Predict the structure.
Amino acid sequence: MNLRILLAGAVIPAALVAGQPATAASADPMADAFAKAAATYEVPRDLLVSVAYSETHLDGHKGEPSASGGYGVMHLVAAKTLDRAATLVKKPLSALKSDDAANIAGGAAVLRAYADELKLDATARKDAGKWYQAVAKYAGASSPEVARLYADTVYDLLAQGIRATTPGGETVTVPSRTVTPDRGSYAKVDDLDKPSTLAAGTDYPSAAWVPAHSSNYAVSNRPTSDAIDRIVIHVTQGSYAGTISWFQTGPRPNPTSAHYVVRSSDGAITQMVREKDRAFHAGNYNRRSVGIEHEGFVDNATWFTDAMYRSSAALTRNIADRYGIPKDRTHIVGHNNVPGADHTDPGRYWDWTKYMQYVTGSGGGGGTNPHTPESVCGSGYKVIDSAALATAGTVFLLYNSANGTNCVATIKKTSLGKATATTAYLEVDGKDRVTDTGNFEYYAGPVRAAAPDKCVRWGGKAGAGTYDSPLEHCG
């Protein structure tokens, strides 16, 4: 047909005349990709975003792999989830590595496959809490304990909400919500976020203990065999749970570990190698140093939170004090400062000025919490017990002998002035538990209850730290 005649009889979009699609490029391509993948594979959209954010902060790193071989926004791991995703979505591996939409679809497809293996029906798939075991399996973790740590992180993000900016400048959000995770078999698995009951297993009291695979470090007798005079700062190029899992995996051609791993969101710390032993983290400095890994990627500044800086600095200060290491940049170094190293971490976004101020306590330290348990609970209350909540705070039990009343207050140590999840509770034997929980800037509480001649349970939470007392302080 003559094009001139056709144009005379109809209005045709210029894009079609030119032979191009009429649909304009989306202004929110990643949000659209999450929505499409969620609908296609019947995965709750916000859960899918939370999995991605926990892995990569929605940064695909231009197709470059993480330290543990994961690709893209969904961190699809070579020879594991990556290959399965490629089969499920019928796309080449190269597309899943570098294309955000294909990668997100692949992650959703793998999660749906795990849900099918768990026999989640259509009704169950609409409940984000029912996906817990599928999320735990997605971690590809080295142990059930690390799988639980991974899944708990995802569900914590769901509860807190997410507002993330992608490398392309797009904003992706998840509203905060209450989701009750159905942990299934993981309910009986040890929670690595709880304070360690193996105090002898850690050199730093606030750390959890998760031992690295024996092939990833060398048993030694430092400082008797080798003086410890350096602390090396690393960035994991991966997630907290993923790094813990990687250090637990072995033997492999390039054994790797560090003494400690620090989480981005709240500064939680896991120790994986005893300080007396040589972790394989810094080449020429392995014999003389303690290595600290920090969750994140060197090219994305969003991982380096104030909570991480403060928690890591407290750890570094503790190590330096115990071994007499000067608190300066000659002795506290980045991986990139190690002679002969070919690594760039911690990278240009690591704020050395802030970090060293926190280590030395010289200016910029952000002050201390102006509130005390006594000021929160009021006149007449005296502290009778307390428990550390990792590095994030302390929960206190107080008693007023004049009226026979107990009081519980959780006092934050990190993220001061910033509203973060904090809890305090008190339960008198035979009565309902009273809880104060929410996003608070400095403390949770006071929670008071009359308890003359009664036993109580008490506890709280701040950051990654949780404490639940037994029935005690009777009478």
In short: Confidence is low (pLDDT under 50) at residues 1-23. Residues 100-117 form the longest helix (18 residues). The radius of gyration is 25 Å.
